[in-house]
Amino acid sequence: MELIFEIGEEGRQLDIFPKCDVPEVKLNANLRKQELHLAHVSEQELSRHYTKLAKRTHGVNDGFYPLGSCTMKYNPKVNEEMAVLPGFTNVHPLAPVESVQGCLEVMETLQKDLAEIAGMDAVTLQPAAGAHGEFTGLLLIKAYHESRNDKKRNKIIVPDSAHGTNPASAVMAGFEVINIPSDDKGCVDLDGLRAAVGEDTAGLMLTNPNTVGVFDKNILEITKIVHEAGGLCYYDGANLNAVMGQCRPGDMGFDVLHINLHKTFSTPHGGGGPGSGPVGCKAFLAEFLPGFTAVKNGNGYEKNYAKNSIGDVRTMAGNFLVMVKALTYITTLGKEGIKEASSNAVLNANYMRVKLSKTYHMAYPVTCMHEFVMTLEEEHKNINIAAMDIAKAMLDYGIHPPTMYFPLIVHEALMVEPTETETKEEMDHVINVLKEIHDKAEADPDYIRNSPHTTVISRPDEVNAARNPIVAYEF
Amino acid sequence: MNTPAELKYTKTHEWVKMEGDIAVIGLTDFAQDALGDLVFVNLPEEGDAVTAGEVFADVESVKAVSDVNCPVSGEVAEINEELLDEPAKINEAPYDAWFIKVKNVGDTEDLMTADEYEAFCKTEN
Amino acid sequence: MGRYVPNTKEEQLKMLNEIGYKDFDDLFSVIPESVRLKDLKLEEGKSELETATIISNMALKNKQYKAIYRGAGAYDHYIPSIVKQITSKEEFVTAYTPYQAEISQGILQSIFEYQTAICQLTGMDVSNACVYDGGTAAAEACAMCKDRKHSVMYISEATDPKVVSVIKTYCFGSNTEVKMVPVKDGVTDLDKAKEMMTEGAACLYIQQPNYYGQIEDAHKAADVAHNIGAKFIMGCNPMSLAIMETPREAGADIAVGEGQPLGLPIAFGGPYVGFMACVSDMMRKIPGRIVGQTVDHDGNRAYVLTLQAREQHIRREKASSNICSNEALCAMTVSVYLAAVGKAGLEEAAKQCVNKSHYLLSELEKAGLKRVYGGEFFHEFVTTSSVPADKILKALEDKNILGGYKLSDNEILWCATEKNTKASMDEVVAIVKEVCA
Fold it and tell me: What residue ranges define each of the domains in chain B, with the CATH number in brackets?
């Protein structure tokens, strides 16, 4: 398909701006000499171009999207409608506090709701994504140790099953990463953890349920070991959809966490963003929070700046319109709806796990939470069919594949997260498709290895893309 | 698998060739085959100190990055800049596609002969 | 109530039994009793109608001004209808990061087009797929310049203080030293920068136009940085790049900025989008996702996420940045905006920013305000007066106009864009005149 720059005709344009109604001023400063090439299209060409692009994109509304660790649940329409209200979109971030009371009410309400769901005392909404939240949370830990003049605490412990953002965030926050191996259930090895902690431990980063979808029963012991060594516990909220309303990170001994509004609270992923990664913490860390928090004062709201703030991790309030969507969602669900969502997410995952375990090998054949991991290690060895091949074959059925090759501790991994918004019929259909693909992989492995066959492109040459990068169109 | 007899090898799949006082270092055929198509190499700079058994470079494939260890201690005398533009050479001719040349060679890791290395690779499979 | 959960209670129980669980308690027995939550202290769920009313009422509590003369990092420009329509398409809104290229060509191509447009605007060779906002783009650009031999960041004090705050926070994280280059006559004191910068300098960062709206001598800044072996980073207002020299022409190594003026609403601060572009030599240092062009097995043109081995999901603790989710839909918005207005439209909007802000200044001067700095400006300028800024802004507020941003007791940073009409500006001037009289 053509690029927007390859269609249209020089001179074509939309009629957007009125004639200038004040005198013209010419600047003497250095003006642009470099040529500027932008699209030159009519409104209809522009509209059709993006309709074509939309047809070449698979979203949650197109079909099943069991992307493990990403929580691709249905994105309710009312959320979107609330986020485009002019009363929100036309508000200048630096307008007087009296004129932005509605925005501050959104923030204050959301802060309180998220704190309750997470079991924390304070929340900042400034971080723009999950990884950004991790970075923020780790800076809180850093500021806390520094405020106590405890400068030797420069190490963050991360299990080998962790999301890649965990170690990357720790390094950005100036810490050294200590990787600890998981036990045979994919959980934290308590002896390994005891051996790793010490007077240089700044903290531990963990998600529970962990990245293989298993709830770590030793969680209170784990957080105790870290606390006794003088470290703090960070909860990676990527998997919060499994436990919201069932249990709370704050009650498991965690001191600080981030929450992905674009996963757990149904604000959409937008093809990679905008997300929002609020950070919650216990009261003793609140003095270090970034940006401002919204606080209620009498009948109104005001901005409150923490006294020993780490500064700003982003300019201004954060991804405000994403907050509006999350608040809409939480308001809709309420306390019973939130628990219902996690209950059904866990039910759906276990339903698929049990049904699929007749065909596929489960990396950990135990009750899972909101997701589970299959391993294609044997198929890879016996019939040279990799996890990638199964994933690509699913594309021909209009199904988005599960997360591939993660977590790193499972070979040939496929990680399935159906979410609570899928019906039993849809899951039964996908289970049948996965069985069919498995049968076909045994009968005609070449066919599966050459999948997909029906998509707008076949498998792309990624080696060529990386060796000879073309990252912009040449005019 | 190609394993030239005149070279020495490490357990982490690097090869070493002594040219007078200079140690020439690269990645073995076994390693490049296991890693798949390489798309980029990160090399140290001339003058950097390298330590036997420690990482001095890494190689990227599309979906992975792997460390390359230095079999000897010393100082980087020269880097193979050609690899920065054409990492494919490591796949095509691993024993011509040297990474660095090291001078002032001090400590050396326990190195294997070609026969020993071939036997070692069989256990790796 | 189970909103958005399709399975009925009966179905749920049937499914539970079918896979060997008695009920939900049985299923959740993997969570130890000691951490099980009894009751979430939230309100009960609401119907869609009730929810919509509650949230809409919050929106109604915000004041909507009939005109905005405030910028300072968030700019009120006109957004063409088609921009909003296209970017609300469900496929774009609900898709994940395009890791599965075969069913994500639409998103991938849209990012490739965005990267192309950013390279065009900045004159640079390589753009990433975007980062969170202008502040984080600046902070990430600084990090790109750090290596073993270059570790001190020099930042112009004429940079938006909100951006400086983000840079400093990131540098607190990475234990990096930041030195502020002072301002002289409303622009960066580059002679002072030259004096301050020594061997270990990693970068010099200036904002163009700067926080006070003034146009900086970017060529000289580039020379100062390069002469000491440091990189030169330019933070740019993308709207101004339609007519002002590009960062590439000025000699920058990295160009960054806030993409909000190109089609995104001011929306109380976000979501916005940070653009980042650099010269080809620095391609492997740029953080975040990059889309590349390649071919599929049948030789068709195709797009993929490329150079991924730089990123956190592969390089983990050795990654140059932790960024994962970015602001993809906002980047698409920028791309659609640029396609909608085209080169001529963008130039027109930029020129109207210049014309209108200059008209506003000249009229305000007649009304009794004085401009603080000499030199040229794009669409923002600073005034002072003997009348307190608060008094002026309050008078405008009373007429439902959001005036400029108060910088100090008597100083106001004004902004005018293509949205501000002559009639509206004349009203502003009349109000100011009355206050100053």
Answer: 8-119 (2.40.50.100)
